[in-house]
Amino acid sequence: MNQHQTQRRQVLRAGGGLAVLGALAAAGIVLPRQALAEWNKQAFDAKTLDDAMKAMGAEAPANSGDVQIVASDIAENGAVVPVQAVSKLPKTEKIAILVEKNPSMLAASFDLGPETLPEVTARIKMGQTSNVIVVVKADGKFYMASKEIKVTLGGCGG
Amino acid sequence: MNRRDFLHVLATAAAGGMLLPAGFARAQAAAADFYDAPAFGNVSLLHITDCHAQLRPIHFREPSVNLGVGSMVGQAPHLVGARFLEHFAVKPGTAEAHAFTCLDFEEKAGVYGKVGGFAHLATLVKRVRANRPGALLLDGGDTWQGSGTALWTGGQDMVDAAKLLGIDIMTLHWECTYGQDRVKEVAEKDFAGTIDVVAQNIKTADFGDDVFKPFVMREVNGVPVAVIGQAFPYTPIANPRYMVADWTFGIQEENMQATVDAARAAGAAVVVVLSHNGMDVDLKMASRVSGIDAILGGHTHDGMPAPTMVANPGGKTLVTNAGSNGKFLGVLDLEVKDRRVTGFRYKLMPVFANLLAADPEMHAFIEKVRAPFAAKLDEVLAVSEGLLYRRGNFNGSFDQLILDALMMEKDAEIAFSPGFRWGTTVLPGQPITMENLLDQTAITYPYVTLNAMSGEQIKTVLEDVCDNLFNTDPYYQQGGDMVRVGGLSYSCDPTAPMGRRIQDMTVRGQPVEAGKTYKVAGWAPVSEEARTAGGEPVWELVARNLRARKTVAAPRLNLPTLKGVDGNPGLTA
């Protein structure tokens, strides 16, 4: 393990969540505006996919190959499923991650500043096998991609 | 009968003009030609995988049920018996036919004898290497688990045997069930300067850093060869996650492409992946990732005499799978000209213990590591009247023995036993020793469980495991077989979608009710709570049961009624 990695772990161990977020913000990685972005209550409370989309102002977004979901096909742990969303679209201003079969579908929404690399990762909770949908707003228009992530009971491996 | 006795019998028989089994005499004559065939090209890779710690020769019956679904119907590896022989143009009745299929298994096992064993494998490796200077020996993993001695030494017997055999590079799966610290200890101390552990798809759970080198570059006769590791992607799901709490796995296809590109950029003229994906996953990955010359695969224990050629946007990739339990040595000869592969020859050589003298050094090592445990391992628990084997999609007779013992000893109406693909074979009339039993059960989480489950929960479990086996998208498969079930009858349509494959569930002739509770015995729980709860190791329960029974009749296999797979070449007629 190299020096850099060790330092990162030490920072996290010593820091605790809030301090680290502050440190990252100070380093310009996360804008304070993003960290404390206004809570879109309606979108996060939505119980159907249509309602969640509507609340984000994204009705029937088009499928796009420029929106990529990087995630394991089978979740190692349904309680923390790492999902990376990448947008190749210019002027990406928003990335949202939705889980179709979660009781509340919108799991995360990121508002991005103009100089931000449009790549975000979130660890989301999934109760069962579901499609995970990433919605991207770029240059005023909405796009999406979808991927099934399986949540299984485990055991019985060859 | 050991090899010397055997040769003596042969000599006596020949002197007396006795008729030898024609198949075996031909096999003997052909063996030298086969094992010592000249090499091809200038880069050779030798490959073993999934030996499951079988240091001594064993019998291993190949499956009679290995169904393919969706686009995989009738494609390698989903072929059994006569359909397998037709597909690969293997002559029926030959030694190879016996090694690759279950046809006439009991009779042919008597004729051709045991297979594998590290002392015999070591001899073969030396012979093959003699014709191929500079050849690399690659180990696809599942090497440290599967025997009593491996379990009791924390895999140390296999770690030392791998070094003695001359393994150059390995990747991982069951190794991880000794815990991440143990794996790191071996990789960093025992293997330092000898064996490289590679895995592009094992990362730290916090920052996603590499835990092992994604690939290593080795020069073979002046040709730079990159070997990329692909560990079993679903280790934290199929096995206890607490064993590898700080690591994350997955297929990581994007990272595989990036790793291939990095290896090429670093000057690799040949890129091979040493994979523990399982064959269906390897075939899909080969179709989507460009720049891999060959994937040397394992995990699904498919002994494939010939590789499958897979087209992808960058060209073609060979996909092999080298069987299990030490039965085979894969030999891939590549011709590399102007920094690219221009031709290949592949052979999957069966390791017939009677046709290969034991390597004295390896033999002495094996006897030494086994000696402290010999008395325990050699205990005869019972005599089996029938053939005991495990491999097959739905059940095996050794699994049925375990299920019957679980139900008897725990007074349970239903029993579950995991669909592991390892586990050796006992011939009819042979004693069942503690060693044989440990071959089926030696894991680091062997606890017996007894649970009250609702009919609905039972259905959910069966559907979940069945989808891991028969999902039409290989990336959603985990590479084990169906959970073995005792006491409960059901029908299964592998071609149906998840939730609709398992039907007609009955217990003692009565339909299973969703809301009713049933007493279910099992073993090998993956949850951390189960570890805390403890429980008797399953081999102790089964040993107790067998000792009391003394003679065991051929178990009556509880098999599901299959639907939707008539004529499937993965099913023996």
UniProtKB/TrEMBL annotation, chain A:
Transmembrane segments: none annotated. PROSITE patterns: TAT (PS51318). Residues 54-156 form the Ig-like SoxY domain. This is Thiosulfate oxidation carrier protein SoxY.
TrEMBL record, chain B:
PROSITE patterns: TAT. The gene is soxB. This is Thiosulfohydrolase SoxB. SUPFAM superfamilies: 5'-nucleotidase (syn. UDP-sugar hydrolase), C-terminal domain, Metallo-dependent phosphatases. InterPro entries: 5'-Nucleotdase_C, 5'-Nucleotdase_C_sf, 5_nucleotidase/apyrase, Metallo-depent_PP-like, TAT_signal, Thiosulf_SoxB. Keywords: Hydrolase, Nucleotide-binding, Signal. Residues 1-27 form the signal peptide. The keyword RNA-binding does not apply. The keyword tRNA processing does not apply. It comes from Azospirillum oleiclasticum. NCBIfam families: thiosulf_SoxB. Residues 397-523 form the 5'-Nucleotidase C-terminal domain. Belongs to the 5'-nucleotidase family.
